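Severity: low
Component: inverse-folding endpoint
Summary: output formatting inconsistent between runs
Steps to reproduce: submit the following structure tokens with default settings.
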């Protein structure tokens, strides 16, 4: 039922709203002499997700959501004891406030459904007529938002990689121009082959989470080691795509690795796993994977079509790997300007 919010029809319906939100962010950034891009991208991610899935566009609510998720993520790696003043205690408080907010959003959508993602979920039911109860749905909304929120890290990586490769940016701009003008649609975005490959390569090289985890459902063997049923299993998607022996010269940023005849992402069924592996319906693959890709494509297409340029003042661009997701240590200070429209 949750997957009803991620069908091709739903994704196509989200494009205009995401484009509008990205355009508003670019207007803010180019109007300022300098910004800290990481906080801005967090705001952008929340605005996009809340707009697409819950129709939320009120500034006060969005600030509340951004602040709570920032607090929550800072507490994820903390010692799990809810002592006063600890990051973990603050994270629990932020989570509880968000669940109250999502409960109110669900109630209003049941009274007046729209065409957004939450309305699609509420309109779905199982074969036996089963529907998701509000208490469960508010937790699933929390899951959707926190999982989607990390797209800010992928967009930050996108901006950094473009800055390092002006020749590649020029090629991408030519392709964006060739896709034509008019309303942006999912079909136009999917027509950009290089644009798609660039976004996939950004996903491959971005360390979003240190590991996925779960319990083994049955005993199995991996590379000669026996793993009993019930043991915790940790798996790093980033390391798998860097050191798994699938990608040639894996440390090199190379979007063309996704193009035929190389198509390195098809060498193994789990070769490309930035947001989990397996089926979205039955496994640990994120149902919002295609939405994140769409978001990144809209952002990339918008900066290319608008001729947006940027520079990074002297700062540390290396990642703080103690954060989830990792962030550049100085907040990614940047100065954006608008060039000639392409």
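Observed output (run 2 of 3):
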């Amino acid at each position: 039922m949750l997957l009803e919010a991620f069908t091709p029809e739903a994704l196509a319906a989200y494009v205009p709203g995401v484009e509008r939100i990205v355009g508003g962010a670019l207007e803010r950034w180019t109007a300022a002499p300098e910004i800290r891009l990481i906080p801005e991208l967090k705001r952008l991610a929340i605005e996009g997700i809340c707009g697409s899935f819950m129709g939320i566009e009120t500034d006060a609510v969005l600030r509340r959501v951004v602040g709570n998720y920032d607090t929550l993520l800072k507490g994820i790696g903390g010692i799990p004891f809810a002592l006063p003043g600890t990051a973990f205690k603050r994270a629990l408080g932020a989570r509880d406030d968000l669940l109250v907010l999502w409960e109110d959003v669900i109630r209003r959508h049941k009274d007046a459904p729209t065409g957004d993602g939450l309305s699609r979920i509420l309109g779905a039911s199982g074969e036996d007529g089963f529907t998701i109860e509000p208490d469960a749905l508010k937790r699933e909304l929390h899951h959707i938002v926190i999982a989607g929120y990390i797209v800010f890290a992928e967009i930050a990586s996108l901006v950094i990689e473009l800055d390092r490769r002006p020749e590649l940016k020029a090629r991408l701009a030519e392709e964006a121009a060739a896709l034509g003008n008019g309303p942006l649609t999912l079909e136009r975005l999917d027509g950009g082959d290089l644009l798609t490959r660039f976004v996939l390569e950004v996903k491959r090289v971005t360390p979003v989470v240190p590991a996925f985890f779960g319990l083994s459902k049955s005993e199995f063997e991996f590379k000669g080691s026996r793993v009993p049923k019930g043991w915790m299993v940790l798996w790093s998607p980033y390391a798998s795509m860097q050191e798994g022996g699938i990608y040639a010269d894996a440390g090199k940023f190379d979007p063309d690795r996704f193009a035929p005849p190389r198509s390195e992402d098809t060498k193994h069924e789990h070769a490309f796993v930035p947001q989990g592996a397996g089926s979205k319906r039955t496994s640990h693959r994120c149902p919002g994977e295609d939405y994140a890709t769409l978001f990144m494509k809209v952002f990339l297409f918008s900066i290319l079509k608008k001729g947006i340029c940027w520079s990074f003042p002297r700062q540390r661009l290396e990642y703080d790997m103690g954060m989830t997701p990792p962030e550049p240590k100085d907040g990614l200070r940047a100065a954006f300007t608008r060039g000639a429209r392409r």
